[in-house]
Amino acid sequence: KSPDGISIDLLQEGEALSVQEPWASMDNSGSW
Questions:
Q1: What is the pLDDT of residue 31?
Q2: Whole-structure pTM over 0.90, yes or no?
Q3: Which of 10, 13, 14, 30 is deepest in the core (most CB within 10 A)?
Q4: How many Å apart are CA 2 and CA 15, to the nearest integer?
């Protein structure tokens, strides 16, 4: 992965955790 890709992943993961806390783990394993 490129540094930009990692930065975007961190931002998207942060948004997912704040918006979808109950199923953040499932979302992460299915998306990345």
A1: 52
A2: no
A3: 13
A4: 20
